[in-house]
Structure formats: structure tokens, C-alpha cells
Amino acid sequence: MKREGIKKHLALYFIAGSQDCPKNIEEILIEAIEGGITLFQFREKGKGSLHTSDEIEQLAVRLLQICRTSNIPFIVNDDVELALKIGADGIHVGQDDAKAGDIITRINGMILGVSVHSAEEAKRALADGADYIGVGPVFPTSSKEDAKEARGTAVIEEIKQAGIDIPMVGIGGITAENAKSVVMAGADGVSVISSISRSEHPAAAARALKKVING
Ligand SMILES: Cc1ncc(COP(=O)(O)OP(=O)(O)O)c(N)n1
Ligand SMILES: Cc1ncsc1CCOP(=O)(O)O
Ligand SMILES: [Mg+2]
């Protein structure tokens, strides 16, 4: 699945690691899938995350199995080796991670996502072979300790206006209340952590987001 094929999966892109989940992450993922998420990223990092590589790999495999039974593509954040080892569907890297241009030859057609914060970075991600970009933080977030300043939908609009043709999601502080503005600005979908993972009812939270995005 490359650029055009990925667009439909970007509609509601759920990201989580155990640190984001007040209850069992597997239960939350199952409920999020019930609610209609279209893509999942395993992002085990930051305060409260698992420590050992064995624990992380075992959790990744369990979550991958859940996604496989529902045909939800499974993306690994940051860790190219883990993505390759467990046979993930894709890898997501940021500007401070392994460089997209360097890993593209190693990932054998896996989906490649890249985080960008400007039109310039979006242009480079496209040239490096990224299948999609994550743009943000759009709104302030508490889920990423080293998040950059939130820039609203301005960067999404800049990328669209510059004619950089690459599938994209907005990320950071997105809720059912503000998701529409992200899609209206030109994103193909939204990526969320806490709106789903910290909801008392993850399925209902995903459903509410989906309704706004599709509506
Ligand atoms: C879809 C999506 N967009 C952006 C990010 C952020 O990636 P990065 O800047 O590398 O930060 P970390 O998530 O690694 O802390 C993402 N993970 N997913
Ligand atoms: C991983 C990441 N990258 C930019 S903001 C962010 C965190 C998004 O989490 P939330 O949806 O809870 O604001
Ligand atoms: Mg990263």
C-alpha cells in the first residue's frame, strides 16, 4: 500500500503506548477498533512506559495480533529494528529519528510516515519517499513531553498551498470539538492519543471523532 492507498487509513489514526492508558492497552485498542479507528501506531515512550526491550516487543506483538484480526495496519513509532523484527506494516519517524532517506531501502515497502513541522520538511519527506506525513502539534498536547509549540492549522494550510502532494494527518490536542478544523485545513485525517486512550469510553470517543471527520 503506497501513497494513494494509505489515504483512507489516515481518517482516524490512533496512537498509544501503555503510558497513555489508564486501563489495559489491549482492551483500549479493541474498543478503539470497535469505534472505527483506521490505523494504529504503537508508541511506547515517555514517563510510565515499559523499560525492557523484551517487554516492549511482547506488547507490540500482542497489539499487532489485535490489529491483524481487524485488518487495521500496525505502525511502529521510532524503532525500525522492532518494526522489521515483528513484521509491522509500517514505521513512523520524526525529524530527530533515523532519517527517512536512509531507512527507505531497508524497510522493504513498509509504510513510511514522517513527522514534519513546516512546508520545507514536508517537501523533503516527499522527496525521501514518505507515504504520509504527520503535521503538528496542531493544538497543545500533554501526551508528548518534548512537543514543539502548537501552530494551529497554519502548517497544514502552508503545505497545501505549496502544492506538496502527500497524504497527511494533523496531530496534537485533537478532539471531536476541533477535528473538523484540521480536516477543513486540508488534512486527510486526524491522529490522536488521549482523546481515545484516556476516554472512559474509547469506542464512543472514536465513534464521535469518526462522525466529525466523515460528516
Ligand atoms: C502520525 C504521527 N505524527 C507525528 C508523530 C511525532 O513523531 P516524533 O516527532 O518523532 O515524536 P515521537 O512520537 O517519536 O515522540 C507521530 N509519532 N505520529
Ligand atoms: C506524538 C505527538 N506528536 C506531536 S503531538 C503528539 C501527541 C499527541 O497526543 P494527543 O492526541 O493526546 O494530544
Ligand atoms: Mg519519533
UniProtKB/TrEMBL annotation:
2-[(2R,5Z)-2-carboxy-4-methylthiazol-5(2H)-ylidene]ethyl phosphate binds at T141, S142, S143, G173, I193, S194. The keyword Magnesium applies. Gene3D superfamilies: Aldolase class I. InterPro entries: Aldolase_TIM (IPR013785), ThiamineP_synth_sf (IPR036206), ThiamineP_synth_TenI (IPR022998), TMP_synthase (IPR034291). The keyword Transferase applies. Keywords: Magnesium, Metal-binding, Thiamine biosynthesis, Transferase. Pathway: Cofactor biosynthesis; thiamine diphosphate biosynthesis; thiamine phosphate from 4-amino-2-methyl-5-diphosphomethylpyrimidine and 4-methyl-5-(2-phosphoethyl)-thiazole: step 1/1. 4-amino-2-methyl-5-(diphosphooxymethyl)pyrimidine binds at Q41, F42, R43, E44, K45, N77, S115, K144. SUPFAM superfamilies: Thiamin phosphate synthase. Mg(2+) binds at D78, D97. Residues 12-196 form the Thiamine phosphate synthase/TenI domain. Its EC number is 2.5.1.3. Binds 1 Mg(2+) ion per subunit. It catalyses: 2-[(2R,5Z)-2-carboxy-4-methylthiazol-5(2H)-ylidene]ethyl phosphate + 4-amino-2-methyl-5-(diphosphooxymethyl)pyrimidine + 2 H(+) = thiamine phosphate + CO2 + diphosphate; 2-(2-carboxy-4-methylthiazol-5-yl)ethyl phosphate + 4-amino-2-methyl-5-(diphosphooxymethyl)pyrimidine + 2 H(+) = thiamine phosphate + CO2 + diphosphate; 4-methyl-5-(2-phosphooxyethyl)-thiazole + 4-amino-2-methyl-5-(diphosphooxymethyl)pyrimidine + H(+) = thiamine phosphate + diphosphate. Condenses 4-methyl-5-(beta-hydroxyethyl)thiazole monophosphate (THZ-P) and 2-methyl-4-amino-5-hydroxymethyl pyrimidine pyrophosphate (HMP-PP) to form thiamine monophosphate (TMP). HAMAP family: TMP_synthase. Belongs to the thiamine-phosphate synthase family. This is Thiamine-phosphate synthase. It comes from Metabacillus flavus. The gene is thiE.
